[in-house]
Design goal:
The structure is a homodimer. Chain A is of the alpha+beta class and about 80 residues long. Chain A is built from two helices and five strands; from the N terminus they run E-H-E-E-H-E-E. The first copy, chain A, is globular and about 35 Å long. Chains A and B meet through helix 1, strand 2, strand 3 and strand 5 of A and helix 1, strand 2, strand 3 and strand 5 of B. Chains A, B: This is SCO4226 family nickel-binding protein. Chains A, B: InterPro entries: SCO4226, SCO4226-like. Chains A, B: Pfam families: SCO4226-like.
Chain lengths: ~80, ~80
């Protein structure tokens, strides 16, 4: 398992309720791909959302986000953490 | 105090030791700007580093990163967290 940071662009004006709803939708099905979304942070002004996950692959992360209707713009594996 | 995510591009091939050294350099002086760098994650393949901090402003985050020799490419406030 590896940590991943995925980034969503174009989410201008996202609200706390929308971020929570999207996160809950991911949590509801993440187990089917052995993904776990740990945290998500949003900057509504620039329309940027960051999701930190642990997963077997970037493809697994993307499949969950696609099924819940918010495909990521970028997904980066994070082999280094401090 | 607000959470911030700052992103460094162009860090291709960064090693665990280099990430740790950069993080420790930030921690050593962060108090002078009332910043705290909580975590940092790196993807050496794409050359991307993400730093999560709590700080009074994006400018304060940037001043610490500039003084330690690694100015951020982007800094985003994160008013929403789940």
């Amino acid at each position: 398992m590896t940590k991943f940071m995925d980034v969503h662009h174009g989410m201008h004006g996202i609200t706390a309720d929308q971020l929570l709803a999207a996160h809950k939708a991911d949590l509801a099905i993440e187990g089917e791909e052995k993904v776990h979304f740990e945290r998500a942070w949003a900057d509504p002004a620039s329309g940027t959302v960051y999701c930190l996950s642990e997963a077997p692959s970037a493809d697994a992360v993307m499949r969950i986000h696609e099924r819940t209707g918010h495909p990521a713009s970028e997904i980066h594996p994070l082999p280094l953490v401090v």
